[in-house]
Amino acid sequence: MNIQDMELMNGQLIEHVGKVIVGKTHTVELILTAIIASGHVLLEDVPGTGKTMIAKSMASSLDCTFQRIQFTPDLLPSDLTGIHFYNQKSGDFEFRPGPLFANLVLADEINRATPRTQSSLLECMEERQISIDGSTRQLERPFIVIATQNPIDNQGTFPLPEAQMDRFMMKIRMGYPSGEESVEILRRTVASRSVDDLSSIISREQLLKAQETYKTVNVNEDLLRYIVQLTEATRKHPELSLGVSPRGAQALLKASQAWAALHGRDYVVPDDIKLLAEPVLAHRLVFRNRIRQQEGLAEHIIQQILTEIEVPTETLTTGGR
């Protein structure tokens, strides 16, 4: 697979998902970017905005093993990872894998589970492995978690801890559709178009090759320094007690490479980084005043930093092309 193939893949997926999802082209591109970069995605918005539907649409478009987990307060870590049980016929203990043993996992309403259950995802999201009863089991590649959550001020929810948030490459807000998009949604409701109508168009082998191809995208040294400057600025911001971690800087780099590849380029430009900075970095910020954490000011701070940091010139970023 080459860069041109990845650009074609991007266009095909947008068109395919667009058969059931109205007006979310940019969201689809962001999710595909994270998947190509082997990153996890957190979709957040109020109920009824299509979070689960777009996640299922992406899963239906990929020819990979898929599991959906409905998170509830009584869900236990073993319900996710699996258990050892005694088989009376064989007289031995056998392992029954949980739903995390899949290529694509939809963690629906993840913030309705208790912190204990949420924490069971930390190891598998970061290291692609699960430790159970003293033994470690590797997860099959690719392994991607697409989680959905309602805003944390809703009843019956548990806010995700900072360590959990940092595992997500991107946090994407769905938003309400426009008036025309709402009319089109109703038209499709009448026509009974659903996610079940979608077939897979990207094989597991193609996805694995794409996850290797994007790494060949060139990133100029000045852009690496630009990413570092952006992340360091968050650590020095007076309103923040916790800025972007080195993992966050790596996520922005990988996402920029994947975004460039999906748009037919073998090099990253500053606009790639600026476009992805908000969904990749904003959810990693922690305010000194936790009340302000819920006011959606993290995105504003990222945009403010983007205007303050000098952008490298185009001749430098493209290697003098």
Give the overall pLDDT as a whole number.
Answer: 88
Low-pLDDT stretches:
none
**What about the largest sheet?**
5 strands, parallel
Strand % is 15-25%
CATH class of one domain: Alpha Beta
Would you tell me which CATH topology of one domain applies? Rossmann fold
Question: How many angstroms separate the termini?
Answer: 23 Å
Class derived from helix and strand content? alpha/beta
> What is the CATH superfamily classification of one domain?
P-loop containing nucleotide triphosphate hydrolases
Helix content: 40-55%
DSSP strand count? 13
Order of helices and strands: HHEHEEHEEEHHEEEHEHEHHEHHEHH
CATH architecture of one domain: 3-Layer(aba) Sandwich
**What shape does the CA trace take?**
globular
Note down, in words, how this protein is organized:
The structure is a single chain. The protein starts with a helix and ends with a helix. It has helices spanning 3-17, 25-36, 51-61, 77-81, 115-119, 122-127, 162-165, 179-190, 204-213, 221-236, 246-262, 270-281, 297-308, 314-317, and strands spanning 40-44, 62-63, 66-70, 82-87, 92-97, 104-108, 129-132, 135-138, 144-149, 168-173, 202-203, 240-242, 286-287. The strands form five sheets. A five-stranded parallel β-sheet has the order 3-6-9-1-10. Strands 2-11 form a two-stranded parallel sheet. Strands 4-5 form a two-stranded antiparallel ribbon. The protein has a domain at 40-178: P-loop containing nucleotide triphosphate hydrolases (Rossmann fold), CATH 3.40.50. 44% of the residues lie in helices and 17% in strands. The mean pLDDT is 88. It has 321 residues and is an alpha/beta fold.
